[in-house]
Amino acid sequence: MVTTVGAASRQSFDRGLTLRTLQRAAEMTVGAILFIVILELVLHFDILDSTLWGLYGPSYFLSGIFGTLQYLAIIIPLSVAIGFSVGWARLSRFRVLTWPLSVYVDFFRGMPPIILVIFASLLGPSLVPARFHSQGLGILMGALALGLHSGAYQSEIFRAGFMSVPRGQLEAAESLGMTFGQAMHFVVLPQALRLSVPPLANELAVVIKDTSLLAIIGALDLFGLSNIFSQQAVFGSNQLWWVFVVWTAVALVYFVMTFSVTELLNWIDRRYHVKGLEAVSV
User: Fold this and answer.
1) What CATH number should be reported for the domain holding residue 31?
2) For the chain, which has fewer Cβ within 10 Å, the N-terminal or C-terminal residue?
């Protein structure tokens, strides 16, 4: 009976989450449409102009989105892996391990990502054996630099999650016969990861927007290709109003990407939320 009631409550909760997510998506869609309509009225342009999209759409817009997704497929998994590993390792009692990691975190958190991208693209290829050199190696190094930069921030997010679980729980698990690894896996990690999801959503939204920095070193992502097309529209075709359309479309794509990732992680947070867990302190 208790199991049936619990399952019914969970299903009702999931339906509520789905409805709220759909409602929020609908609100954002209506807001975006109103924003575009106002821009069209004020700046006197047509965002659905067929001539513009015939030139910009296939070669620049769609290719740019694909390029941005490729860089995100490198940066996000790398940054999450680094953040989790470094955040966990910094809890070690061994100073010889925590000190170098603290230097890494402080350095990358204190550097502007645009500087890291430039230096990585210029100096990074020299660290790679010549047989692995390619035309896009500098851009790849810039993407790795963004992964290291975000990983430093995420390490603090994960570390705060680990530290939010009282040490008494770990000691209680070990007193019940669990090994240290079992206690971390079954007791500490489930709580720490739940606490890390909300701030992690914000950091991943920043990472998505930071990929536009790769355009300064020649990356053919959404920002880079749109910038090339905008220059051609102004100096080649003398169509200044096309610039407003292009950058409005770019802004909408980045908004959809960040909104989707944020809502996904927020859904995960609500789906696996444990009441009262947010109040746990060290």
Assistant:
1) 1.10.3720.10
2) N
